[in-house]
Amino acid sequence: FRYWLELSQNSQTPSLHYAILSENVSFKPDLTYFLEVKISSAFDGKLIATPMKGNGSGDLANLTVADAFIELPRGRVEFRAGEIFHFYSYR
User: Fold this and answer.
1) Given CB 3.0 to 4.6 Å as the disulfide criterion, which of 35, 36, 61, 90 pairs with 52?
2) What angle do CA 17, 44, 18 make, to 5 degrees?
3) pTM exceeds 0.85 for this model
């Protein structure tokens, strides 16, 4: 969302944020998946994205504990801990 917002305000270089996925994630539909995550910092300053367990896309209560959405690209089923992906913070 922030990326879109910065683009819509004519920002020359919208900021993209990246985080390291902390756990393995499986997602079978061939869709881009915006997974709710909690963002934290490791001791070395790297950002870590921890998936929030929920009950599907209608589980709006999860939004109160998550910080961001991490973007998992389509065309894959398995996403491994340690991989780096874009995230969109909403806090």
Assistant:
1) 36
2) 10
3) no
